[in-house]
Amino acid sequence: MKISLVPLVCTLLIPSAFADEKGGLEKDAAPPAPHALEEGYRGTENARIMTVDHAKTMHDGATISLRGNLIDDQGNDRFVFRDKTGTIHTIIPQSVFDGRTVKPDNMISINGSLDKKVDPPVVRVDMLQK
């Protein structure tokens, strides 16, 4: 019994002794500061940034998150939303406003889905933050 255990223990220990030290994470250099990153995932705040121009290129039914201003009320829950890249039409039911008043100079965030079946495309807003 002792003789059969010795080869087994040796076979388990030898591969780790000859393991190569390459691969994995090398911690020789410090990572860049978060503000110095040029691209890539940088957290939930940056993941939510989207522009009107980018939203217009997305597929029908895509989830949209925009930050900008409501600049025009076209009646029947239809509004024009603008950010630094352009404008897009939105449908915002009164229940989404939840009694809040929004002025054109108020910066707001809207979340909803893109409807490209109509022309021009609209964002059907289901959440508004002031």
UniProtKB/TrEMBL annotation:
Superkingdom, natural source: Bacteria
One protein family per Pfam: BOF
Signal peptide segment: 1-19
This protein's UniProt keywords: Signal
Keyword Signal among UniProt keywords: yes
UniProt-recorded name of the protein: Protein YgiW
Species lineage: Bacteria, Pseudomonadati, Pseudomonadota, Gammaproteobacteria, Enterobacterales
Gene name of the record: ygiW_1
